[in-house]
Automatic annotation (TrEMBL):
Matching HAMAP family: RF_methyltr_PrmC
Any one GO BP annotation for this protein: DNA restriction-modification system
An example molecular function term from Gene Ontology annotations: peptide chain release factor N(5)-glutamine methyltransferase activity
Name of the protein this chain belongs to: Release factor glutamine methyltransferase
Positions of S-adenosyl-L-methionine binding: 155, 207
Binding site for substrate: 207-210
Free-text function comment from the UniProt entry: Methylates the class 1 translation termination release factors RF1/PrfA and RF2/PrfB on the glutamine residue of the universally conserved GGQ motif.
Record field: catalytic activity: L-glutaminyl-[peptide chain release factor] + S-adenosyl-L-methionine = N(5)-methyl-L-glutaminyl-[peptide chain release factor] + S-adenosyl-L-homocysteine + H(+)
Homology family: Belongs to the protein N5-glutamine methyltransferase family. PrmC subfamily.
Domain Release factor glutamine methyltransferase N-terminal span(s) in chain numbering: 11-74
Amino acid sequence: MKISEIISIYSEKLTGISPTPRLDVEVLISHILKFDDKIKLILSHDNEMSDNDFLEFENMFNKRLKSVPVAYIINNKEFMGHDFYVDENVLIPRPDTEIIVEDVIDTIFDKYNNAEELNVMDMCVGSGAILLSIASSMSDYSSDFFYRCKFVGVDISKGALNVSNINLERILGNISNYGNIQLLESDLFKSPEFDNMHDMFDIIVSNPPYIPEADIQTLSPDVKDYEPILALSGGNDGMNFYKEIILESSKYLKNNGLLFFESGHDQADEIKSFMKTNGFVDIYLKKDLQGFNRLVCGKLRK
């Protein structure tokens, strides 16, 4: 069967199950045929797919028919120009989160460019998408500056940390062995290792679980049935992790240290208010492409 015919027939089969049926089919085909851009796929439309490749495609497609996310099927998600390994141990990185990463990077270049050291923590690190994108940007900018930085990623999930370790080598390669990136298993700040981290961090960034428990079942099947509940549920009102991180971070941030959050689409004002009453100043918000306040950042004043 020609590739163009496969795209047409299988996109139709996926209609009503996926909001992006044709794109999903094209991504699966491109993954199997190792096409790294859409031009190669377009130029191959009249080519026949081999029996072995077609069998692999059908196996993957049948998973998508059951609403398994494409990123889990191909174990890959592009984020900030990098290909991250993902599986069902971690939340799939979203484009909205790039706003947080970009703001952290801009802040580092603006405020910390000449710093003798820079310590950054990602609380609820998951796949490592946020932390490793920041670290990669520092490395691309200046190896000397990168080696003056320390990066700490924290997660309660062993499975998530395994994924982060895979991405550490994938994104940073040989420099991942330098020793300035630490991945730590901990329920937020509860690990004894935090006893030695008081007043240590210039920046803490977090995309914590923030979906209210009652809303979990209203999510699309590819989210609620496959993405880890541990990375989704933020308690009754979705604010549990925000509040605990805000309260505990004051022990580990330096004076004038910055706390960055990704916010749920309607939670930014409540996060801002809680930060304001717990020692944070100069708080600002930034909107995502849909117009929702997605980023909240404040400075800790001790």
